[in-house]
Amino acid sequence: MFDSVRKFARAFRVPSTQDREVAYLNESKDRIDLEFRMRQVDRGMFRKSSF
């Protein structure tokens, strides 16, 4: 019973900032693209507030 509730809750969970950063870095095509993406993450690409 609780397993199905947990699965349902995970399906609607909003990914954290760290999850989004890791997913973005994992999409890199090569080392140069990875380094570019790492610089963007370090500059706060995912941490900017919407205010």
TrEMBL record:
InterPro entries: DUF3563. This is DUF3563 domain-containing protein. It comes from Neorhizobium galegae bv. orientalis str. HAMBI 540.
